[in-house]
Amino acid sequence: MPKQKTRKCVAKRLKQTSSGKFMHNSPGKRHILTKKSAKRKNRLGKAKVLSGTELNNVKNSLPYGLS
Predict the structure, then answer these.
(1) Is the pTM of this model over 0.85?
(2) Pick from 6, 9, 26: which is nearest to 67 by CA?
(3) 38 is a domain residue
(4) Fewer CB within 10 A of the end CB, N or C, for the chain?
(5) Cα Rg for the chain, rounded, in angstroms?
(6) Are 66 and 8 in contact (CB under 8 A)?
(7) Which domain holds residue 10?
(8) How many CB atoms lie within 10 A of CB 3?
(9) Does some domain include residue 39?
(10) What are the residues whose beta carbons fall under 8 Å from the beta carbon of 10, sequence distance 6 or more?
(11) Does residue 30 lie within any of the structural domains?
């Protein structure tokens, strides 16, 4: 059986913590920032833990995990 390929677009967007959780950056902090409040922009700048529903898709895209 051939090796499975890693989805590079997924691998570049995520970081894996030491406990095995996946962190991702929040979308929405690239442009049109004038109408967003300072509190909202501050929240968008922080990395978030990937939710459980998306975790199954990520595990299929990264068959060998992140190195």
Answers:
(1) no
(2) 6
(3) no
(4) N
(5) 15
(6) no
(7) 1-23+48-67
(8) 7
(9) no
(10) 58, 61, 62
(11) no
**Percentages (nearest 5) of helix, strand, coil residues in the chain:** 35, 10, 55
**Contact call for residues 62 and 38 (beta carbons, < 8 A):** no
Nearest to 44, CA basis, from 28, 57, 56, 32: 28
Mean pLDDT by 10 residues, the chain (67 residues): 92 92 94 97 95 90 86
Question: What stretch of H or E contains 5?
Answer: none
What one-letter code names the amino acid at 10?
Answer: V
The b/e string for 25-42 (b: 16+ C-beta within 10 A; e otherwise) is eeeebeeeeeeeeeeeee
36 in a structural domain = no
